[in-house]
Amino acid sequence: MDNAELDRLLWTALTGEQARFALGADIGTGSARRFHPGIGPLAAVRDLSPASLADFAALTRAHGPLALMQPGEPVEIPGIEGVKSALGVQMILSGDAPALDAMAQAAQDPRVIPLGPQDHPEMLDLATLTQPGPFGTRTGELGDFWGVKEDGRLLAMAGQRTRTGNFIEISAVCAHPDARGRGLAALLSRRVAAAVLGQGRTPILHSYADNAAALSLYHKLGFVERAKVSLTIYAPGT
Asked: Pick from 12, 17, 150, 203: CA 20 to 30 A from residue 162's CA?
């Protein structure tokens, strides 16, 4: 397991495979990047050195509130304020045989369909309603997404967010309140995981540490906790 790649997941993505979605270098913040505003407020720093934190502060002053997801406790950054923080969990697929078999079966389930650009408005509506995490008008461009529809209506979805050389993050797992209790979140999470494995990479995901229902689901899917992370929103100081 590449611990450095996982510890610096967002930085690795924003300076690598997903650099086309990154902002920061354009204003001279060489050690800080953020996703395009149409994707969300997630940002990253090269490391926790004073120079990197200063670049992140400059990026925040230029762009408005941004979020850092880092291993361990929230970081105090001179010149900006941490306005909200939550403890999260980074999880990784354990690779046990029953979990892998279930993922292979999900990939063949006829209820699951790929989602494309034509579905982006409805995907945004579903994410806005259910709040699975940051989701904007361009989030659907980050990777492959799948959903379940009935009578043309999107009931549930899941897809890929952060992508690095060895890992792809499962994200935006959500189901409409009218469709909860039907196992659609589990089905779609397995479908995304199967696609990640098919690319020779390892599925990972993140959850709030106090979301017992989500953590229970992910454990059942075969994921194990790798690290605690903090998600902190920073805003320019007053």
From this structure: 150
Distance CA(14)–CA(36), nearest Å, equals 10
The label of the residue with tokens 């086309």 reads 20
| 2 band by pLDDT with thresholds 50, 70 and 90 | low
Find, among 81, 68, 1, the residue nearest to 31 by Cα. Answer: 68
DSSP state of 21: G
The one-letter amino acid at 26: D
What confidence tens digit (pLDDT) does each residue in 174-208 have?
999 999 999 999 999 999 999 999 999 999 999 99
Nearest CA-CA partner of 191 in 115, 104, 125? 104
Strand ranges for the chain from DSSP E: 22-23, 32-35, 42-45, 66-71, 80-93, 112-115, 145-150, 153-163, 167-175, 202-208, 223-236
* Residue pair 173/189 in contact by the 8 Å Cβ criterion: yes
CA dist 194 and 187 (Å) reads 11
Q: Which amino acid appears at position 76 of this protein?
A: E
Q: What are phi and psi of 156, to 5 degrees?
A: -160, 155
